[in-house]
Design a protein that fits this description.
The chain has 325 residues and is mainly α. It has one domain. Strands 1-2 form a two-stranded parallel sheet. A two-stranded antiparallel ribbon has the order 3-4. The longest helix has 25 residues.
Amino acid sequence: MDLISSLTAAADAVAGFLVSPGGRLWPLYLGTMALIAFGLWWRRRPGPGFLAWAFPRAMYVSRSTWVDLQLFLLGRALATLGLVNAVVGAALVAGLVGETLGGLSTGLVLPGWAYALLILVAADFAVYWVHRIHHENKVFWPFHSVHHSAEVMTPLTVYRKHPLYDLIAGAARGVSLGLAQGLALALFEGDPQIATLVGINAGYALFNLAGSNLRHTHIWLSYGPVLERLLISPAQHQIHHSSAPKHHDRNYGEVLAVWDWMFGMLYVPEREEILEFGLADAEGNKLPQRHDTLAGALIAPVTDALAAMGLRRKAPLPPEAWPGE
């Protein structure tokens, strides 16, 4: 394939992703985010107009957002090549589990809502542990630190990920989804497609329609002290990105808060908090920005991971910048 064909294929992949409900940037998801943001602005009536308040120009033209965009485009290109694809992995595992457990059907029909919930719980549990391990392990942390190095957040920041993190997370999610799907197909009757909404798992579709894109913004949206023990609100995920020491290693969950609640990692805010984003040490001192270029975002984590494994004489990051210190 020549260069022009490669660039055309990559552009088609990005365009297809933007019009797919499987991506967080689907226009309908962005539209519901904007509607929720407008409701919050209308209720609070801050000084600036809505557009200036919700979409500050300084954030969207920042170097941090430029790195977000480059990593997003790189991630789409790798997905086009068949890498970092949890859907394919899930299908393979589901088929293997289904064949292994063939003939064990209970004859019961699993309702669509129950099938959707099963898949959501399985995927969310995998995401929780992949996320948490990347925070708590010195070798894995550098790859996830790219995401946390964002000093301003926009909906693009969800794709500010090192390819190796995406690869590991995609594999874990694919295995988890495949196990859940394979068990459901083997043990229960019914069409799994009834558990979908706009072509994807209904649970994730509702999660995205309910303003999931606000998680990576400066706009505070809390669900309240009761619901935030069940679901991770945008405010709770913003707290996860906070550089304040009291917020470090809290709220690992993506959709469900129950995992953090079970394992003692949940932080439920009592009121709106003023947050600063970016990497910081255990005392809350901001660390030098080493991921402000695409090359830095890709190379620095590799050298840091090698240092954590003892394969480099000198660690680029001081020990206090590593988790668990």
